[in-house]
């Protein structure tokens, strides 16, 4: 995401069980899967925008809705993974029913972006103001159904409206690269057509997939979250494990407090004491280092990944490098986890605060089996976090 400068990334066929969210490397990952490790969709939101997420609804292992606070209206994003051609009509009908349900959660005036693998070909023939003339290939039956749904719901197929060379249109290639089709789409509400500035594929992106990413550029205003002043975090656990720093800190606090002199007012005494503590901590106690990304990632692996990306045109070489990358990643992660476990064992008695921080670092902050919704007494579905909390507070008062 950082390399391609993406703020939001949609994923199809995630193959994660259950539904929920996880924070990794500062990014929020919201996912929706089933009981088996198949199908599944997800949306990754980078750190600055993740703070504006109002809520989400994991409707099924094929449809996920995320609502983001905007200005003056909210942004709704739906990630999909439509049934393949070998699935029956019942599966396809359920998919479109889930899509209809997701749309009912979006206000008419709010922009709606729908993206993902539709397993449908809309072709290059223009259809009113729904499908542009810059699609790819010949329309099929699934494509007809998708267009029909878009016409009913006033949605345009975004990546058919921008003139691009064929290599910037195809989104999927068959095994052996015999066929290339456009079956992944980025769609938006018709009334926000002008908010979509560009949509095209990036075949050079290294995703190790038979699909290539469709990237859209949008001009939409999201709500700014007021940034609280960053609190300095000191590594207080070191006072228990390092006697030299502990004694130095105690002396520093005492000297600074005495330097303030006697104060008659209790409030002034407290302010002096607080200042002495903070000044001494700033001088003596090291700060907690903020780290991001995968801690086990090495420069060697990053270089190998770049080499793999450059080898996309040579399938045999690409597969060889990919295998080495996987082996290096597994080995590096295993070594990192083993080292962390040793640290945790040592910290168990003397530094429990640091121990829990390390445990969280290994396991990640993850919420399991949460669809992100609440059903109100009147039958309405609520996905807005603030509204869910308010319902909870009202319910608590009635107990």
User: Whole-Å distance between the termini?
Assistant: 46 Å
Kindly report the spatial arrangement of strands forming the biggest sheet.
Answer: 5-6-7-8-12-9
Number of domains: 3
Q: What does the oligomeric state look like here? A: single chain
Count of beta strands: 17
- Class from helix and strand fractions: alpha+beta
Summarize the helix and strand pattern as letters: EEEEHEEEHEHEEEEEEHHHHHHEEEH
Q: Biggest sheet, open or closed, and with what strands and sense?
A: 6 strands, mixed
Helix tally? 10
State the CATH class of the largest domain: Alpha Beta
Average pLDDT: 85
Uncertain ranges: none
CATH topology of the largest domain: Deoxyribonuclease I, Chain A
List the helices and strands and how they pair.
Layout: E1 8-12, E2 19-24, E3 27-32, E4 41-45, H1 47-50, E5 53-58, E6 63-68, E7 75-81, H2 89-104, E8 112-117, H3 141-153, E9 155-157, E10 172-173, E11 180-181, E12 184-189, E13 196-201, E14 214-218, H4 238-241, H5 243-259, H6 266-284, H7 299-310, H8 315-350, H9 352-363, E15 365-367, E16 374-375, E17 381-382, H10 385-398
Parallel strand pairs: 7-8
Antiparallel strand pairs: 1-4, 2-3, 2-15, 3-4, 5-6, 6-7, 8-12, 9-12, 10-11, 13-14, 16-17
